[in-house]
Every structure is written in C-alpha cells, then in structure tokens.
C-alpha cells in the first residue's frame, strides 16, 4: 500500500517581511516568504514553510510545477486533503506562523 499524496495549489509572494500562510486565493493558498526569488531560494522557503506548518518532513514535499512562477503546485506525501485544509486554515488564522531562519 502506498502513502497518500495530495497536490496543493499555491500563490507565492517572495521577499515579504515575514513568512506566513495568508489564506485562500481562489482555489489556491496564498503564502508569503522572506526569501528573494533567486536561485530557487524562495521555492525552498515555501517548502520549508509548508513542512513546518503541516508538521510533515521536508522530504514529503515536492515542487512539481511553477519553479519560476508565483503560481506553484506542491505534492505532499503522507497527508490527506482534509487535514491539510484544517492545518492551513489554522495557520492563516494565526495558529502557526513560522519565522524564517537566517
């Protein structure tokens, strides 16, 4: 039996003052990261933010589309859509906002 995978649509704002899950943006989730969109730094910051917010290991997340764009699709392994929705909703409401490590 294989682990459950879910694809998540994101709208990313790089270079923000702080990293956070902001809320819904249409059918996607809006996230902000402090890293600039250079050499994949913002993409990695997005994956770290989601990993921390969802309490998943970083290795369970893969950026599958949108490497150079604001619109991204991330595949998550080991968590279903209902739990992802609850955790992201909680984070957007201020439940778990992660500060970026420098």
Write down the CATH topology: Conserved Hypothetical Protein Mth637, Chain: A
Contiguous low-pLDDT stretches (5 residues minimum) are: 96-102
Name of the level-1 CATH class: Alpha Beta
Shape: globular
Number of strands: 5
Q: What CATH architecture would you give?
A: 2-Layer Sandwich
- Kindly report the spatial arrangement of strands forming the biggest sheet: 2-3-1-5-4
Q: Which band does the percent of strand residues land in? A: 25-35%
Q: What attributes characterize this protein structure?
A:
102 residues; five-stranded mixed beta sheet; alpha+beta; 2 helices; Conserved Hypothetical Protein Mth637, Chain: A; single chain; globular
Please tell me about this protein's structure.
It is globular, with a radius of gyration of 12 Å. It has helices at 41-54, 81-92; strands at residues 5-13, 20-25, 28-32, 61-65, 71-77. It has a single domain, classed as Conserved Hypothetical Protein Mth637, Chain: A. It has a five-stranded mixed beta sheet, with helices on one face. Strand 4 and strand 5 (71-77) form a beta hairpin. It has 102 residues and is an alpha+beta fold. The chain is built from two helices and five strands. 25% of the residues are buried. The N and C termini lie far apart (39 Å).
């Amino acid at each position: 039996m294989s682990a459950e995978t879910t694809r998540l649509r994101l709208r990313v704002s790089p270079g923000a003052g702080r990293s956070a899950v902001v809320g819904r943006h249409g059918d996607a989730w809006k996230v902000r990261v402090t890293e600039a969109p250079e050499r994949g730094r913002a993409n990695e910051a997005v994956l770290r933010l989601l990993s921390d917010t969802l309490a998943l290991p970083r290795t369970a997340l893969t950026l599958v589309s949108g490497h150079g764009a604001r619109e991204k699709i991330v595949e998550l392994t080991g968590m279903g859509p209902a739990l992802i929705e609850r955790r992201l909703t909680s984070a957007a409401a201020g439940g778990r906002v992660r500060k970026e490590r420098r």
